[in-house]
Amino acid sequence: MIISMRKHASKEEIDHVCERIREFGFKVHSIVGDERVVIGAVGVGDVTPCLEMLEAAPGVESAVRISAPYKFVSREFQAERTRIRVNGAEVGGDDFIVMAGPCSVESEKQIMETAEAVAAVGAKILRGGAFKPRTSPYEFQGLELEGLKLLAKARAATGLSVVTEVLSERDVEMVAEYANIMQVGARNMQNYALLKALGKCQRPVLLKRGMSSTLKELLMSAEYLVAHGNPSIMLCERGIRTFETATRNTCDITAVSVLNELTHLPVILDPSHATGKRSLVPALARAGVAIGADGLIVEVHPCPEKAFSDGAQSLTLDMFRAMMRDLKPYMQLWKESRVAVAAAV
Ligand code: PEP
Ligand code: MN
Prior knowledge:
The chain is an alpha/beta fold. It contains eleven helices and 14 strands. Helix 7 (215-227) links the parallel strand 11 and strand 12 (233-237). Helix 3 packs parallel to helix 4 (145-158) and helix 10 runs parallel beside helix 11. The chain is globular. The two termini are 24 Å apart. The structure holds phosphoenolpyruvate and manganese (II) ion. Phosphoenolpyruvate binds at residues 103, 129, 133, 185-187, 208, 238, 273.
């Protein structure tokens, strides 16, 4: 059940509701918003008597039964889309958002050149890994703190915001000092210690789908973040493991539509990791716009053949410029349909 307290309900009323819910045997999670407190009640058993009690309790505006196991992130809980402000940009709002940059931050020259190029053609958020999760321990692991500092420098020079991966709960504070958005990589989608730590962090999270995870599991991981205090989440489809070997992963493009039905959270498509091959990225990016994703995260490198990681799927700066040009009319249609849908609701 989700219980919305009235605007400015008193502390006594909130405490009383929580206490009564516990008496019915449910666990209570409260989220304190700017205007109101929302209480999630979770547990097993028939909720009907508890719902009846809540309807009569002082300070309660509404109490609804949520059938999905992910409560706070479900569309049942919140019909309107979540909009997440990141500096001047809004993810989940009226503009299609492009995040772009190298897989790894490698040097000042590389990140500056990339940041300036992507900003010039409309990207709003700079990506770049400072902590890299690599399959082999002998591969480049990232510049770590130095990489974070370079990202901050690129932000200062271009006005772009920064999204970068955090690999461990130990690094949350350090990464949050430099990043605007904290990326949870596919390999860490079910790292619950990390999710709990990010719940307490004030920064929005880009939560990537695990390569063998179902959408329900993705939403349950998002629910962890909300249950621990952080409702600002962007979900990311980045391809999943299948029997197909022609591409690095198989893009589950329908995931975008499924997520749009199941959750109010914004959905970002990563056509780079989904394909593993730069020639396939622009077409999949177009599909992402057409299917109604809220944005893209794309790997771009000034010289992909020299990239320390994921060179094969990284666009050159010229290819990125061409892709952005090609996407323009699609983004315009996207905007018109987003505004029309909002007006119809
Ligand atoms: C990345 O964004 O470079 C990355 C490692 O992505 P994923 O976690 O989706 O593999
Ligand atoms: Mn990568």
